[in-house]
Design brief:
The protein has two domains: 140 residues, no CATH class; 76 residues, Immunoglobulin-like (Sandwich). The chain is 1% helix and 54% strand. The strands form four sheets. Strands 7-6-5-4-3-2-13-14 form an eight-stranded antiparallel sheet, with no helix packed on it. Strands 1, 8, 9, 10, 11 and 12 form a six-stranded mixed sheet that branches. Strands 18-17-20-21 form a four-stranded antiparallel sheet, with no helix packed on it. It starts with a strand and ends with a strand.
Amino acid sequence: MVMSQNWCPPGAQWNYEDMSIGFFGHYHRAYIGDTVFLGQPTQRIRTTGMRVDILNQDTTWIDEIMYTSVQDSILMVPAWSPNGVIWDTLLRFDAVPGHRWFLPNHGLYCNGSIGNTGILEVTDTGSVVVDGVTLRRWRFGVDLGTGDPIYGSDWYYERIGFMQGMMPFPFCGWSIDAGENFRCYWDNDITYVHPMAPGGTAWCDVALGSNGTEQDDELNLFPNPGSEHLTIVLPDRPHSFVMHDAVGRMVAVRSGLIGASTVNTSLLSSGPYLIRIEASDGTRTTLRWVKD
């Protein structure tokens, strides 16, 4: 049994689902190397993906870099302060029950919250074995001003982090939004899928924009919007096809597709869908399709 490297081992990648109110989408994060930032050794993590506004159907494509730094067993991220950007605690790999801290940027977003409202407290520790590697984990709750960690009890893990996203929005004493939800993590040693992830291991295949895309003139999808069917025109090599609905459920899967292929969509509900197409060489493209 192997003990875990606590953050960003070689090949580290994460997939998340956007569960924000009025939106849906997917995010892929990948550890892409080290640098120095704000005077500290830093991990560079690239985020790619997309977010769809369900009401007006606007799509936002995301490609950005975030920074993390492990300092004395504390995972830190850049955060705002009155004196400028500083490193602030995201989670602790040395925590024992009773350890407490605010999420980064709590003072910025929760100005006016009372006392320790929104502070995280570790309530238990444990471990799980994933593919022969032992991952430590910590259960935490959130103090809503009562003095006790009574809200949002969940675990965070070595390598993986929070189940609520890589950097959850600070708790300000009320619940505004579900935000991101962790779905899958993998690196050169292990693969871990959230047990409640809709579609299960399919989430480990959704790596939006992380591995290149087909050329626009080689790939086409029509009609869009459509109704009874959709036709996909693919380059002359085998492709796989996975379709997810607005809540992340996998509703169609095809493999070995070459050239023009038609998919029967007559039984699908109206609304937006995400289609992931992967070529035999590993090249991935994600498209958005709407059923009238």
